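Subject: for your reference before the review

Hello V.,

The reviewers asked for a structural picture of the protein, and I figured it would be easier to keep everything in one thread rather than splitting it across files. Below is the amino acid sequence we used in the manuscript, unchanged from the supplementary table.
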Amino acid sequence: MKNSSLTTKLISALAALTVLAYFGVQGWRYFTNPVKTAQVYSYRAEQTLALSGTVVRDESVVDCGDALVELTRGEGERVARGKPLAVVYQSAQALRDARALSDLREQLTQLQYAQSAARDTEAALRLDAEIEENIVALRATLAGGNYAALDADVSALETIVLRREFAYRGGADLSGRIESLEAQIRDASAALGGTSRVVSAPFAGTYSAVADGWEAVLTPEALDGLTPDAFERLAPEPAVSTAGKLIRGTRWYYAAVLDEADAARLTEGKSYQLALSGVDTPLPVSLRSLSREQNGRRLAVFSSDEYLSRVTQLRMQSAELILESRTGLRVPKNALRIGEDGTVGVYCRIGLIAYFKPVSLVYQGEDYCLVRPGEIHAARESDLVLYTLRAGDEAIITASELFNGKVVG
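And here is what came back from the structure prediction:
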């Protein structure tokens, strides 16, 4: 009995020593060669070139010869030939009278809408949804810093709120007010007659309210054969009173002087992405031409026939030219390992276990790589999921004697 008890004690002691030894070895390994991991995430690597250049368009100033001008078109709006661009007034009083007339017409529109909405329950209910949409649009305008469109968004919101107020009051008492407003509008229109003239579009184009004097100097034709020195000597013409300008076609240009070394990285006719300051997304361009070398410099001219409305107000502009762009999963360089069969991959920690996930190399940075999940031959769907590298995985950077299934807690 005593021998049996002694044997049990010895076995228990041996088991305890084994467990202690295991944890002692693991602890020693942890402190001498701790497991370090880095999170895998999606990443875009770009090679860029900093530029300082000028936006060029085929545009013509619309001269009005007067200072009392009220513009009737929005920035970047397409205008057909013969359509009004602005109204010129003979006096400040005429301008005030015209704005008062515009307010009367807006009030009439609101009352007429309210009268019809009062007879249509669904139309009245739709106003609440329209108010919410206008508030969302206003917040988006503020968040995007597009203050040029702020007045229009505020005005639209005010109009719809007034329509809602009139609609919920009911339209029974609106007929008299509508008749009164119509009479006021007739009288105001008659008094305003002959005190203004309309400025129309001389050709179809894209409208811009800003004329800066470069329109006749910086033209697409002027860029042909221009040297860097000649480009930098160009100067704008004196500004005059205008009703804005019209841009022909949809193509625009960006011209910048580059060092010879930077110009050597470019290829004529090749497509690039141009990230202009003041524009929220890179725009597609192609290299139209490179001038001959002059004092170690060249003039590069890029062109695009997309997103003209985003560059109608831009002129002297800094930019980043994206030469090359690669996307993939970013992992540290020292996380890449070669498996027993020569496959390149990454060991990832899932729970306390290391799993080898094959990858294919996309791009090598200074201390990181972009990779794609490699080909996996798995009979079970669960294995395919387990061994596929994904964003959010923990890539093992440092650990000794890694293999599939190793405990690396």
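For the response letter, the relevant points are probably these. The CA atoms of residues 141 and 149 lie 7 Å apart. The chain has a mean pLDDT of 84.

Happy to draft the paragraph if you're swamped.

O.
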